[in-house]
């Protein structure tokens, strides 16, 4: 029962953060991080875990517009990166998620000296990309699932092995998007749709824009679905202006 209660609290915290990100994406404003004012307040709480789950998308509005992030949000983000370094045996998606967060810090933050006695890994140590060979060997269903998990890497101009793998297989990602919609897996469909917004060679018959509208509608009040759809719209609009 305690574990179930903790999972429910964590899910709620992630949704609250996702709601803040969606609001910032729609308004071009700072990510406010409701209920978090200073990095000291999140010590020993679920908030760091929630930031870890949301990953690099917490600061996505500041990457896409771009605008300087709120110092409190940036401090919590940095603390999360330092608190959750992936182990050597961590799954590839966990390693890539950490890499994406570290990359975001390098884009937006000025490195600070480590605190005395600190044991957490510095994001400065995470330049090397994890491997991504498993994506090239994956079937289109698995590929789409993995890319949806790694949707925070789907940003304009991102050059990494995951993005290159996606660019090589636009038709497979499109097939995966359709499959996710048919299975009513709105989070996977939204993540795949975000990737498709950035890919060349997507079949015109897919109707991606209408498809994303449908995913958002059917996703109901899930802010994690709304985050992916809104990110896709912002990137699509930016691409149309280029």
Give the biggest beta sheet: none
Number of individual domains: 2
Rg value: 17 Å
In angstroms, what separates the terminal alpha carbons? 52 Å
Molecular shape: globular
Order of helices and strands: HHHHHHHHHHHH
From the structure above, extract its key features.
61% helix, mainly alpha, globular, 2 domains, 242 residues, 0% strand
What topology does this entry show?
Elements: H1 2-27, H2 47-54, H3 60-64, H4 71-83, H5 92-108, H6 133-137, H7 140-149, H8 161-167, H9 170-182, H10 186-198, H11 208-218, H12 223-241
Commentary on this structure:
Helix content is 61%, strand content 0%. About 8% of the residues have low confidence. Helix 10 packs antiparallel against helix 11. It folds into two domains: 129 residues, no CATH class; 112 residues, no CATH class. It contains twelve helices and no strands. The protein starts with a helix and ends with a helix. With 242 residues, it is mostly helical. The chain is globular.
């Amino acid at each position: 029962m305690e574990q179930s209660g903790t999972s429910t609290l964590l899910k709620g915290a992630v949704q609250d953060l996702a709601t803040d990100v969606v609001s910032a994406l729609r308004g071009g404003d700072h990510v406010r991080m409701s209920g978090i004012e200073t990095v000291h307040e999140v010590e020993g709480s679920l908030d760091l875990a929630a930031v870890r789950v949301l990953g690099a998308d917490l600061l996505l509005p500041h990457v896409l517009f771009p605008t300087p992030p709120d110092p409190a949000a940036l401090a919590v983000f940095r603390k999360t990166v330092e608190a959750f370094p992936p182990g050597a045996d961590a799954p590839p998606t966990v390693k890539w998620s950490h890499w994406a967060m570290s990359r975001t810090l390098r884009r937006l933050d000025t490195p600070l000296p480590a605190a005395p006695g600190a044991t957490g890994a510095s994001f400065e140590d995470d330049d090397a990309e994890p491997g991504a060979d498993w994506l090239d060997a994956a079937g289109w269903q698995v590929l789409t699932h993995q890319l949806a998990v790694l949707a925070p890497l789907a940003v304009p101009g991102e050059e990494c092995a995951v993005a290159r793998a996606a660019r090589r297989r636009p038709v497979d990602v499109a097939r995966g998007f359709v499959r996710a919609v048919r299975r009513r897996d709105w989070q996977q469909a939204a993540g795949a749709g975000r990737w498709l917004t950035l890919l060349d060679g997507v079949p015109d018959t897919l109707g991606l824009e209408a498809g994303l509208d449908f995913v958002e509608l059917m996703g109901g009040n899930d802010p994690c679905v709304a985050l992916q759809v809104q990110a896709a719209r912002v990137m699509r609009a930016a691409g149309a202006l280029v």
